[in-house]
Design brief:
The structure holds 2 protein chains of 2 kinds. By secondary structure, chain A is α+β, with helices and mostly antiparallel strands. In chain A, strands 12, 13, 14, 15, 16, 17, 18 and 19 form an 8-stranded antiparallel sheet that branches. Chain A has a 5-stranded antiparallel sheet with strand order 5-6-10-8-9. In chain A, α6 crosses α13. The longest helix of chain A has 20 residues. The model of chain A has no long low-confidence stretch (mean pLDDT 98). Chain B is mostly helical. Chain B has one domain: Cytochrome Bc1 Complex, Chain D, domain 2 (Orthogonal Bundle), CATH 1.10.760. Chain B contains 4 helices and no strands. In chain B, α3 packs across α4. Chain B is globular, with a radius of gyration of 16 Å. Classes of the chains: A alpha+beta, B mainly alpha. Chains A and B meet through α4 of A and α1 and α2 of B.
Chain lengths: 514, 104
């Protein structure tokens, strides 16, 4: 019987003992966790996989890059893999748990320095453990006219972590990786790479010009296990003098076509500059209701019932939330353009004045589209209850017919498993991130199994039509890697072998193993 | 104090008032139990996402156990985010605080 709750694959307990002893020397015994009690927070996940498949062997908490380098030397010696996390708030994608059993969670929360915020060039340099809240506070303390772009778990999530996972927010800077500039990466051999201009000694252009010289490398360290990102430059939006959020409600399911066809040209031309959202009626209802209060029948809620509920609760079948940013004058001009376009398409355009001060749905969208701290959208988790959530997020063209087709594909599979289509499109630029929250009761093993099978089938059905997800959870990384084809997998594998020959960094991340 | 400084001071005071109880802090270290509550717990438990937890005389030990283990949709929080001392403080605060009016 092992004294550990899990061990890394292929590592003998005696070697693991030695690695743990070395970690304690580097970090102090208090910063090396390996009992079940102290590892408990790392075992809490929302995805429908048994935690036994993702149980870490230990968690270690460095405070500096230098400590990380020393940790990696130990890992190379004993072949003990580490799974780096920033703030571990990747809810619905695996939270803080590793892709495979027995990995050591390298918890980077204590690397939480804000290295720099430049109010002229509008950028920040942060470490992995900095939260959006911390950066928000920094900006407020100094009264800087800068906005953040938080994702939904914003206050407790990491700008660095979310960006390297290629997450999204809702302001004009919504596509996070696009608005990052310059990384510091610790490689498996302990080398420190600064990407782009950061490779130049004494450079002061690391955060202002992405490309540097020669092959641009930043992308290979996102959704990746080729290195540990320990610093990241992120561009911050200058606070505009004026801001006008609004919602456009459409009455029918098929109106998704009109909604997308109307929003696309406005978005591509930057009249609407932000990563707004187009949410369906059940998304709106789910954020502020418990399902059992609205429907008690078996299976997914029938369409006719959804339509009735939408009407009764005053939400659209589709709801476009976007905003205008600029001066009062530019917004006044753009307002004429957008209202004319949306009205002509059959939508009802509403502002804060129209919906009133107390509409929780409007208010949290208003807040996230201007980078305020809120987690109100997690009301979604009360819809089913039971703490089960997993994001199925295929990429779609920003084209009405395509979003319609994806909705049909998704509903067919979801309904088969009795799961509601709680869906939203994040308005990228030429794409839509089609985000579906697979909500299920994780306290019921049968529901968990259904959710897992449902996701698996969704991946296959979408892949058959040429659609892939932009991100996946720790349980499906191998499968999604396969769906993206053998050449991509082979190139990933070759890079992995070159940079991390012992496979000590996050084996299984994005389906990349040693 | 010249008028420009006075304007700056007034602006700073207004910003603090607007920030309410959630005093700003960018050090990455919790300054008080109230700050932990406002900047972690409150985003759900004062926002109709999680249940109201103040004013219920919940046992501090129970609160700490839920924070470390999570419970259904409630995520778990690690020592690296809220250390044992900070957790003990916020657990005591929640346990002894009167109920706040739930916000929308």
């Amino acid at each position: 019987m092992s004294k550990y709750i899990a061990l890394p694959k292929g590592v003998a307990e005696a070697d693991f003992d030695k690695a743990i002893a070395e970690f304690k020397k580097i970090l102090g015994a208090g910063n090396v966790l390996h009992t079940r009690e102290r590892l408990a927070p790392y075992l809490k996940i929302m995805i429908p996989a048994p935690i036994e498949e993702h149980t870490p062997s230990a968690a270690i908490m460095p405070e500096s890059v230098e400590q990380i380098q020393r940790i990696l030397r130990v890992c190379n010696r004993y072949k003990t893999p580490v799974w780096p996390i920033s703030t571990g708030k990747n809810f619905g994608y695996g939270s803080a748990a590793p892709a495979t059993r027995g990995q050591i969670v390298l918890d980077l929360k204590r690397l939480n320095r804000i290295i720099e915020v430049d109010p002229d060039l509008c950028f920040a340099v942060v470490e992995p453990g900095v939260t959006y809240q911390q950066l928000y506070d920094y900006i407020k303390e100094r009264n800087l006219p800068l906005w953040l772009d938080p994702p939904i778990p914003g206050p407790v999530a990491s700008p660095l972590g979310n960006t390297v996972e290629r997450g999204v927010g809702y302001t004009p800077y919504g596509e996070h990786f696009l608005f990052s500039c310059g990384m510091e990466v610790v490689l498996a051999n302990g080398d420190i790479l600064r990407t782009g201009m950061g490779s130049m000694p004494n450079s002061n252009t690391w955060q202002v010009f992405k490309w540097g010289y020669g092959p641009s490398l930043d992308g290979i360290f996102t959704q990746s296990n080729f290195g540990i990102v320990t610093k990241l430059g992120i561009w911050l939006m200058p606070a505009p003098p004026a801001y006008k959020p609004f919602v456009v409600r459409y009455p029918d399911q098929a109106d998704i076509v009109k909604a997308i066809e109307t929003v696309r040209p406005l978005r591509i031309a930057q009249v609407i500059p932000n990563a707004g959202t187009v949410s369906n009626a059940l998304w709106e209802l789910a954020v502020v209701n418990r399902r059992a209060d609205l429907y008690t029948g078996a299976g997914a809620i029938p369409e006719a019932t959804v339509a009735k509920l939408a009407k009764a609760h005053g939400v659209g079948s589709w709801n476009v939330y976007t905003a205008l940013y600029g001066t009062e004058e530019t917004i006044a001009e753009h307002w004429k353009i957008v209202t004319a376009a949306f009205k002509a398409s059959g939508g009802t355009v509403l502002t804060q004045e129209d919906v009133g001060p107390d509409d929780p749905l409007f208010n949290y969208r208003r807040d996230v589209m201007r980078g305020e701290m809120t987690m109100r959208e997690f009301g979604l988790y009360n819809w089913r209850g039971g703490g089960g959530s997993m994001w199925f997020a295929p990429v779609s063209q920003a084209r009405g017919s395509e979003t319609m087709k994806q909705m049909g594909l998704a509903k067919k599979v979801l309904n088969k498993y009795g799961i509601d289509y709680v869906g939203l499109f994040v308005i990228g630029w030429r794409d839509m991130h089609h985000i579906i929250d697979i909500l299920y009761d994780r306290t019921l093993p049968a529901e968990m199994e259904k959710a897992r099978s449902c996701y698996d089938e969704l991946l296959d059905d979408f892949a058959r039509e040429g659609y892939g997800v932009y991100r996946t959870n720790i349980d499906f990384m191998d499968k999604v890697a396969k769906l993206y084809g053998p050449v991509k997998a082979s190139v990933n594998h070759k890079i992995k072998k070159a940079l991390d020959p012992n496979g000590i960094l996050a084996p299984g991340k994005s389906g990349i193993h040693r | 104090m010249n008028s420009l400084n006075l304007i700056r001071l007034l602006a700073a005071v207004a910003a603090l008032v607007a920030a309410g109880q959630a005093s700003a802090d960018s050090t990455g270290k919790w300054q008080s139990s109230q700050e932990v509550y406002n900047k972690v717990c409150g985003y759900c438990h004062e926002a109709n996402v999680g249940p109201v937890i103040t004013g219920r005389n919940l046992m501090p030990e129970y609160i700490s156990a839920i924070v470390r283990n999570g419970n259904r949709a409630m995520p778990a929080f690690r020592e690296s985010e809220i250390n044992d001392a900070a957790l003990a403080g916020v657990a005591k605060l929640v346990s002894t605080s009167p109920a706040a009016a739930a916000k929308k």
